[in-house]
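Continuing the series of single-chain predictions for the mutant panel. This is the parent chain; the variants come on the following pages.
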Amino acid sequence: MVAVESGTAECQYCYVLRPNRSLSWRQNLGVFGGLCLVTLMLVAPLVAMGFWLVLPFAGLELLAVGIGLYYVTCRCHECEVICVAADSIRIERGRRRPQQSWVLTRHWARVVLTGCPRQWYPSRLQIRAQGRAVEVGRFLIEEERCELARELTRCLRANP
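Parent structure:
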């Protein structure tokens, strides 16, 4: 999802990129808790009948699902911010605060959208300047990535 924020004194254009997520953190915890409850309700009668070996495997299954759900939820809370100022482009990436940051010269910057020739993989959107390239919008769908490339190209061509 791409959100465009109005310019500030230091930043003419500001693009905030976030992946689409269907559930919040609390809702994911609720889904995982419900899955744990259902699994334990199915395993409890088997343990009561003497098939106690089912319990560790059910626990391992829930652990694997929990780790996978945690990883996906953390990745869905990533955010990229692209701020285009009069003479520079600042790109920041992170979850709660910027964990990675790049500053590129606006006058040398260009937007490059590279597609896969076989259509198997999504395209790659990069902002390149002076031998450096930063990939942005890795989690966007193809239409959003193409629209962002058009917007960034238009923004960079505009006079500061």
